[in-house]
Give the backbone structure.
Amino acid sequence: PKGVCSLAYNAQFEKGVLRRLAELFPDLAEHLMYIHNNMKDLMEPFAKRDFYDWRQNGSYSIKKIQPILAPSIDDGYKAMASRGEISNGGEAMNAFPAFATMSSEQIAKKRKELLAYCGLDTLAMVKVLEGLKELVK
């Protein structure tokens, strides 16, 4: 919808995906580019070092920030990894292309894993934003 912004962690990457999607799906291009043009980057305060914690060890990836500002959800990623499910961005990016060689049952399983992982990543962003808000109260 118009008049809203989207929040991403690493907006540069997400904007690239949106541009490619807009090229592939011209009928959706206007809507996709609206999202693109109204995206904010949650990574910015960490990349600019407006926030820094020694536990980041020089990194500002969401996987370094989340345990510091949103430790309550850390067990979710660990549980996914212990079950052999998708638990990091690299695995998530590789899962979709692998669908071409999977059975419909395998695709259904991986799709469920992808949705769970993406849901946890979204929750991580929400909790990190809440953590930042708590710091500036």
